[in-house]
Amino acid sequence: MAKAATPASKPTPKAPAKPAATKAAPARKPVTAKAAKETPIRDQVAATGATIKAEASKKAASLKADASNLAGEAKVKARAAATKGKDKAAEAVGSLAKMLEDSAGTVDSKFGKQYGDYARSAASTVAGLATSLDKKDLDELAAATKDLVKKNPAVSVGAAAVIGFVLARLLKGSSSD
Fold it and tell me: Could you write out the DSSP letters of every residue in 34-58?
């Protein structure tokens, strides 16, 4: 089969351009500062921004006051808890002194009078510590502790370990009663 010949098509001429499409778009007039200020939308946005800023400032001041009040309350509660802890520690150290004093007689009979005297001396020292703890307030104790740690850091660490061990044993013994 032979291909059928198609008649050659003539190129179609393009349509002439419309006169409006060839003109440039008219330029907009620049907005002056005065005209921008007179626009009601910009005024509303500015007023809303000022209102939001004022409300945020009020809220920030309120939150700051609340935080300050909470910090004050926390300080009072922490001081009360520390005072209560100091009183318990003084009581525990006093109990330890009494226990050492009571055991001095047993030490005399089992190991000799010299060791009994050591026990009585230790009991006296511990009783003095208990009295000192009981009489001093927290600020005085903190200052005395800082001075002791600065003068004798190694002794301070050892004493803290011994006191912690003794208090843990005393508190463990009193909680099972």
Answer: HHHHT-HHHHHHHHHHHHHHHHHHH
Contact 104, 112 (CB under 8 A): no
**Residue 98 located in a structural domain:** no
**pLDDT tens digits along 122-175:** 889 989 888 888 888 888 888 888 888 899 888 888 888 888 888 788 778 766
Quickly tell me which residue has 């803290």 as its tokens: 160
User: Is-above-0.70 flag for pTM?
Assistant: no
Residue 173 lies in a domain: yes
Residue 64 has pLDDT above 90, yes or no: yes
Distance in angstroms (rounded) separating the CA atoms of residues 82 and 80: 5
Determine the Cα–Cα distance for residues 173 and 167; give it in Å rounded to an integer: 10
Residue 19 DSSP class: T
Of the candidates 139, 104, 150, the one whose C-alpha atom is nearest the C-alpha of residue 125 is 104
Amino acid at 155: V
Residue 15 lies in a domain: no
Question: 150: domain range?
Answer: 136-177
